[in-house]
Amino acid sequence: MQTSLTPRARAGRYLGIGALLGSTALALVWAAHGFNSSQASPQQITDQFERNAGFQPGFRRNHSKGLCVTGYFEAQGEASIYSTAALFQAGQTPVIGRFAIGGSNPQAADDSVPIRSLALQFNLANGEQWRTAMNSNAVFPVASPQSFYEQLQASQPDPKTGKPDPARLKDFFDSHPETAAFRAWLKGFTPSSSWANTHYYGLNAFVLVQEQGQRQAVRWSLVPEQPYEPLAAVQRDNPNTLSHDLEQRLQQGPLRWQLRLTLAQLEDPTHDATQAWPADRPQITAGLVVLEHSQPQATGPCRDINYDPLVLPKGIEGSDDPLLSARSAVYATALYRRLQENHSTTGALQHD
Amino acid sequence: MTDTQQHYSSSVRGLHWLMAFLLFSQIFIGATMVARVDSYAILIVLHKALGLILLGLVCLRLGARLITTAPALPSSMPQWQRGAAHGLHGLLYLLMLAQPLCGWLMLSAAGQPLTFWGWVVPSLISADSGLYVLLRALHGLLAYLLFALVLLHVGAALVHGLIRRDGVLERMLKAAPSESK
After folding, report:
1. Quick one: A28 and A166 in the same domain?
2. A244 — phi, psi (to 5°)?
3. Is A186 among the domain residues?
4. What is the arithmetic mean of pLDDT over A297-322?
5. How far is residue A140's CA from residue A276's CA, in Å, rounded to a whole number?
6. Does residue B52 register a pLDDT over 90?
7. Is B147's Cβ below 8 Å from some Cβ in A?
8. What is the domain count for chain A?
9. Torsion angle of the four alpha carbons B156, B157, B162, B167, in this order, in degrees rounded to the nearest 10
């Protein structure tokens, strides 16, 4: 049937086949380690969050303390000039949101953390979703995922004091001048009395896409209609003052924010969340976010939502900001861990 | 007539090589994207699109395989090896079908919308985080199982093509043994 191979040739061919299969398998192992990237992996970044606040099974790895809210978005139609996204057409879209304070400690006192956040998921009628996770700081401390990882490492509490090592933090900030705008905000702001009268910023730039494919870079923010009041001294006695305040306010009636879109000029950086755009950039109001009810995060509808900033409807796209991909990757890793914990016996937010 | 006995039909061969390329890419994309923060966003878009394409292709291929005649294995092969070959092919078809479905189900269970070139792909099941956890674990497991079976398949094909030279590899190549690599 065929000329038979010499034993030597036969062994050589077996060896060749084995080498091919072995190197292919090794290549996959290499890929699964991110091709030995010098950048921190989503797993390493998630691990660092766990180190910074102690392992808190079942809770979100960051912005761990918060509560769910529900309501709707009432579009005024103005943004539909810039984007085909269905939710910008005049009309209502249901919203599932979550208020939180920054940091990975679910037991932190509400007044102990300067950063607050509001995350929203808009459920469009056609099955699409828009998810956005916004912070009370208008700019982010760092521009790259790797710098963020280094910031997390520098913020890791010293086991002796239970607090971050000030020298290490100083080293980090000294070697990262891009953090200046964020630090200025941190120094200058006075916390408001409520999640309800807080201004939230989308941090990263995104791109609105029009019917004809025309693109407009934007940043968005939520401007509260509830008037600003400073955090009262008496509120500092209650570690859960923000959730109590919010629940009380919602019993009186719904809370409202204007969804404001800031339109970039061509020279405005879209890849750098540490830089604010000039204050004179035109803004349009896309509509009103109206929040009506709140629920505890352990049982509310926001519990299992991953507020991944790259879950976007057609007509909104991510920009070239490298933080967006990193947020998406780390959030997915953290979500999977958290849900695994909550569906085993270790999770704190187990449902019955 | 003898030609159709010795080789798979051109539709099955075309789909085999197209899928071989896409499936290899897909497994590497999947393994890479979960390990990297920089390329995650672009890779996951690609991964979801490729998954749906592969699901469509495997359905076509199963159809093509059912309506065409598969060439017989050589009589020189021992019975157990033929059984193993058929079993491996069956498992490969099963996993090529199950893996993209698992990914789709997993996104549905996570409450994540799935779009394909702007089209909203319907959810297969309603959101359920417990099921998501299971399906997410299964998706990773099936990926490595599928990869291992593909390696076994490639290894067996190369043993037939380079060592036994019994025409088994040529059924999918339709080329002289010397032209196979």
Report:
1. no
2. -60, -45
3. yes
4. 97
5. 9
6. yes
7. yes
8. 2
9. 120
Shortest alpha-carbon distance between residue B15 and chain A (Å):
22
Q: What is the predicted pLDDT for the residue at A195?
A: 98
A35 touches chain B (CB under 8 A): yes
Q: Do A14 and B163 touch (CB under 8 A)?
A: yes
State which H helix or E strand residue B23 sits in.
Answer: helix B10-33
- At residue B179, the pLDDT reads 41
* pTM of the predicted protein model: 0.94
Residue A23 host element (H or E)? helix A7-32
CB atoms within 10 A of CB A299: 11
Residue A163 one-letter amino acid: K
- A225 and A295, same domain (yes or no): yes
The overall longest dimension of chain A from CA atoms, in Å, is 94
- Same domain assignment for residues A296 and A184: yes
Q: Looking at residue A344, what is its pLDDT?
A: 87
Domain that holds residue A221: 62-141+156-322
Query: Is residue A316, in this structure, part of any structural domain at all?
Result: yes
d(CA A232, CA A135): 21
Residue A307 confidence (pLDDT) above 80: yes
Instruction: Give the residue-averaged pLDDT of A278-302.
Output: 97
ipTM score for this prediction: 0.93
| Total H helices, total E strands in chain A | 7, 10
**Do A196 and A112 fall within a single domain?**
yes
* Residue A2: pLDDT over 70: no
**Integer angstrom CA distances of residue B3 from B166, B174, B179:** 16, 9, 18
CATH of the domain at A171: 2.40.180.10
Q: In whole angstroms, what is the distance from residue B4 CA to residue B27 CA?
A: 32
Residues A115, A204, single domain; the answer is: yes
The per-residue pLDDT for B176 is 41
pLDDT band at B6 (very low <50, low <70, confident <90, very high): confident
> Which of A25, A326, A336 faces B37 most closely, judged by CB atoms?
A326
Backbone angles phi, psi at A57, to 5 degrees: -60, 135
pLDDT grade, residue A3 (50/70/90)? low
Burial environment of residue A109 by CB neighbours within 10 A (0 to 12, 13 to 18, 19 or more): middle
Q: What is the pLDDT of residues A183-238, one digit of tens each?
A: 999 999 899 999 999 999 999 999 999 999 999 999 999 999 999 999 999 999 99
A24, A28, A124, A344: best mutation site toward chain B, by most B Cβ within 10 Å? Answer: A28
A26 and A162 belong to one structural domain? no
CB distance B37 to A42 below 8 Å: yes
Tokens 């490729």, located at residue = B50
Please check whether residues A238 and A202 belong to one and the same domain: yes
Nearest CA in chain B to A312: B113
CB-based burial of residue A15 (10 Å sphere; 0-12 exposed, 13-18 middle, 19+ buried)?
exposed
Answer whether residue A99 is part of any domain. yes
- Do A24 and A87 have their domain in common? no
